[in-house]
Design brief:
Blueprint lengths: L11 H9 L8 E6 L7 H17 L1 E6 L1 H8 L6 H15 L6 E5 L5 H12 L2 H5 L2 H9 L8 H4 L1 H10 L5 E4 L4 H18 L7 E4 L27 H9 L20 H9 L2 H12 L5 H28 L1 H29 L6
Parallel strand pairs: 1-2, 2-3, 4-5
Helix pairs in contact: 4-14, 5-9, 5-15, 9-10, 11-14, 12-14
The structure holds tryptophan (TRP) and iron/sulfur cluster.
Iron/sulfur cluster binds next to helix 12, helix 13 and helix 14.
């Protein structure tokens, strides 16, 4: 799967998922989270953040930094956890997540996530977690560390707690997260069967946007070293775009090109105006535009997209305590809701109340 070229932008897996899960209507409350694993790249922006930006305009939205989830796989090295959390805060706000419109918070700052995780772990059969494909895949991919931990197995249990604490009925996620959401639905049904109809079954919201490949045509991923980061300088963007894979059949400018196999062209489809994309396509096929020029133009487009984000990001990071305060406020707002829900859950489970 890793080597598969993303040409049309929407791969087979995505097509199947889009057929199976229709776009949710009558959204009541949206919630999603992201693990703070480093600076955000363009793949994160188009795959996750952009749908969030759209959703925050049309529904009550909660977005949080999943720092507990981050340490399920990186517990052996947490040096960068706080810095990564801070970078994520800056990236989010620089991209347009708006604390006036959405509730932005940090998972570990709302203690109810941890508390509900414990409670849900009591009712979740281990075999449900063991058959989770994401679990098996991650175990395969990250062979360098011990992942047969209690916490990592329970990843989707914690994720379920995140969602149901807020009665979120719609959860924007990538296709890779669909198995987790299915598990959440199962856990919710099991809980409700034991304790009454208290938890809301979440539905996924899949982004319909085409995927942005990495510099080498594979999926953009930190571990492949093929990313353009939101924080990259103008020169870094230029250098990276120059290194992008084009049509390998093209040696000279006059050779007819095949834009459909060219990563640069995929990017143009996202960053350039429709008319210009058509012109480039024609010129490439006719051997009338050189790849060097085509790339130069793309680098300019990406840079003008990134420039305001870069600036805002830098400005935000100049005043860290102010940035942290934004998330502190959000976490307090989130906590009010989570607390009420947790009380109701404990009551349903028949804990003696003090
Ligand atoms: N597992 C998600 C990811 O890696 C992050 C996440 C944690 C999440 N809790 C969530 C997403 C709750 C949606 C809802 O992308
Ligand atoms: Fe790709 Fe542009 Fe070169 Fe055509 S001209 S192969 S679209 S970089």
């Amino acid at each position: 799967m890793g080597r598969e070229l993303i040409v049309s932008g929407v791969d087979k897996e995505m097509k199947l998922a889009l057929e199976k899960y229709e776009e949710p209507k009558d959204i009541k409350r949206v919630l999603s989270g992201m693990r703070p694993t480093g600076r955000l790249h363009l793949g994160n922006y188009f795959g996750a953040l952009k749908p969030w930006l759209e959703l925050q305009e049309k529904a009550e939205s909660f977005f949080f930094i999943a720092d507990w989830h981050a340490i399920t796989t990186s517990y052996h090295d947490t040096k960068e956890l706080s810095e990564n959390t801070l970078y994520m805060m800056a990236d989010w706000i620089a991209c347009g997540l708006d604390p006036e419109k959405s509730t932005l918070f940090v998972q570990s700052w709302v203690k109810e996530h941890a508390e509900l995780h414990l409670l849900l772990s009591m009712i979740t059969p281990v075999r449900w977690l063991e058959r989770n494909p994401t679990y098996k895949e991650m175990m395969e991919n990250l062979k360098d560390r011990e992942l047969a931990t209690y916490g990592f197995l329970g990843y989707p249990v914690l994720q379920t707690a995140d969602i149901v604490l807020y009665d979120a009925d719609v959860v924007p996620v990538g296709v890779d997260q669909l198995p987790h959401l299915e598990l959440s639905r199962e856990i919710v049904r099991r809980f409700n069967r034991f304790f009454g109809e208290l938890l809301v079954e979440p539905r996924p919201y899949l982004s319909r946007a085409p995927k942005l490949p990495g510099l080498d045509g594979r999926k953009m991923s930190k571990s492949y070293g093929n990313c353009i980061y939101l924080s990259d300088s103008k020169e870094e963007v230029e250098r990276k775009v120059r290194s992008m894979i084009t049509d390998p059949a093209r040696v000279r400018k006059t050779d007819p090109g095949h834009p459909e196999v060219c990563t640069v062209f995929t990017y143009h489809q996202i960053f350039s105006e429709k008319e210009r994309v058509k012109e480039i396509e024609k010129a490439c096929r006719r051997g009338e535009i050189g790849c060097v020029q085509c790339k130069r133009e793309l680098a300019e487009r990406i840079n003008s997209f990134l420039e305001p984000i870069r600036e805002k990001r830098q400005e935000l990071l100049k005043n860290k305590s102010q940035l942290i305060d934004v998330f502190k406020d959000g976490s307090e707002r989130a906590r009010k809701i989570a607390k009420v829900k947790m009380e109701a859950i404990k009551e349903a489970v028949n804990f003696l109340r003090s």
